[in-house]
Amino acid sequence: xxxxxAERIWVGFGFAGIVNFIAVTIIMVNGVDVExxxxxxxxxxxxxxxxxxxxxSLIFEKESWSPLKQTSVHLTMSLAVFYxxxxxxxxxxxxxxxxxxxxxxxxxxYFVFWFxxxxxxxxxxxxxxxxx
Length: 132
Hints:
The protein is an all-alpha fold. Helix content is about 80%, strand content about 0%. The chain contains four helices and no strands. α1 (about 1-30) packs antiparallel against α2 and α2 (about 35-55) runs antiparallel to α3 (about 65-90). The longest helix is centred in the last third of the chain and has 35 residues, at about 95-130.
């Protein structure tokens, strides 16, 4: 189990690194000057989100919960962690319009990932069943 958690943590670091690289590349290509402290704070926020998502996926391994309960708890926790970080880091201004738009974008991205992961798992199940 400890190995499984350590593996998830490294996957979270990997995804955070990719997101950070993309963000820094966009900043560099557009010639935007960013203070090191601001860049560091945003990178730390991305790392924390990556770690959260890598560990929160354990919710989907709780077989006694229905898929609806798993998804609802995961989504609710994800929004709570995101908005906590967004407030600290300054990703989203705390105005009604910005909160509604960011929530809609977050949920849309969440369900795109949820849909494609579901397709992947369905394909894996089908392939495993063929080999039985």
